[in-house]
């Protein structure tokens, strides 16, 4: 078997451009997923709020129980049936964010519930409302505890973002497939694409590890 990487590296700039789009899609999706996850996670904290709790639980059931690829196709091909046409990039970000938001919500809920309830009770005894104690006491501690699992979700998003190439978004995978259509060097191209994904996830892991170690050194993460 003869491997020839020259045709692939001749178009390496296109792969780098695609990698940048992958990072942009992933970063935008993560920010939106965090906002969604926060809302859903807080909504599932109190089962006594029957309507909100069950709506949030239904969200988890739908988005965790169906494949991401199917969800992306629904956003991209389904919305036009209702007169809503979004750019491919927006559909990719929205699809990834809604899917990831379901998992982020469980991270949020777990982090909030891990904060000692005595701190909330102490805040209430000082005259704080439940909302104020959540914003001033609970959430700051919970956010710090979310960082490690959110890092894992970020890495998963980077890998899952390869699916947005099917929406004609010019991400890393899409650029790799374009090179294959011209060079017919599929194995070599996929190996290089996999290496770039590996670099992206490894750099992300190193950054997150450094952040976590700094927080541990400061006593912010137990």
UniProtKB/TrEMBL annotation:
GO terms for biological process: amino acid transport. It comes from the Bacteria. The keyword Nucleus does not apply. The chain crosses the membrane at residues 15-40, 52-78, 84-104, 190-211. Residues 19-208 form the ABC transmembrane type-1 domain. Keywords: Amino-acid transport, Cell membrane, Membrane, Transmembrane, Transmembrane helix, Transport. GO terms for cellular component: ATP-binding cassette (ABC) transporter complex. Its main location: membrane. PROSITE patterns: ABC_TM1. The keyword Transport applies. One of its GO terms (molecular function) is transmembrane transporter activity. InterPro entries: AA_ABC_transptr_permease_3TM (IPR010065), ArtM/GltK/GlnP/TcyL/YhdX-like (IPR043429), MetI-like (IPR000515), MetI-like_sf (IPR035906). It is found in: Cell inner membrane; Cell membrane. It is a multi-pass membrane protein. It holds the Pfam family BPD_transp_1. Belongs to the binding-protein-dependent transport system permease family. HisMQ subfamily. Part of the binding-protein-dependent transport system for glutamine; probably responsible for the translocation of the substrate across the membrane. This is Putative glutamine transport system permease protein GlnP.
């Amino acid at each position: 078997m003869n491997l020839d990487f020259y045709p692939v590296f001749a178009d390496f700039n296109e792969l780098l451009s695609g990698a940048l789009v992958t990072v942009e899609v992933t970063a935008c999706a993560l920010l939106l997923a965090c906002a969604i996850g926060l809302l859903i996670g807080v909504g599932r904290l109190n089962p006594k709020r029957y309507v909100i709790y069950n709506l949030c639980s239904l969200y988890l059931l739908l988005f965790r129980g169906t494949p991401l690829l199917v969800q992306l196709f629904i956003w991209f091909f389904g919305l036009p049936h209702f007169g809503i046409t979004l750019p491919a990039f927006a559909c990719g970000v929205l699809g990834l964010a809604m899917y990831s938001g379901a998992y982020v919500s469980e991270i949020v809920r777990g982090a909030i519930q891990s904060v000692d309830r005595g701190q909330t009770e102490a805040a209430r005894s000082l005259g704080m409302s439940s909302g104020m104690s959540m914003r001033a006491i609970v959430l700051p501690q919970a956010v710090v505890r979310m960082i490690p699992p959110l890092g894992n979700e970020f890495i998963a998003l980077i890998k899952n973002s390869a699916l947005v190439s099917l929406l004609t978004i010019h991400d890393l995978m899409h650029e790799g497939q374009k090179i294959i259509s011209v060079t017919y060097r599929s194995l070599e191209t996929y190996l290089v694409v996999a290496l770039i994904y590996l670099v992206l996830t490894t750099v992300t892991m190193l950054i997150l590890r450094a952040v976590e170690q700094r927080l541990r050194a400061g006593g912010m993460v137990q």
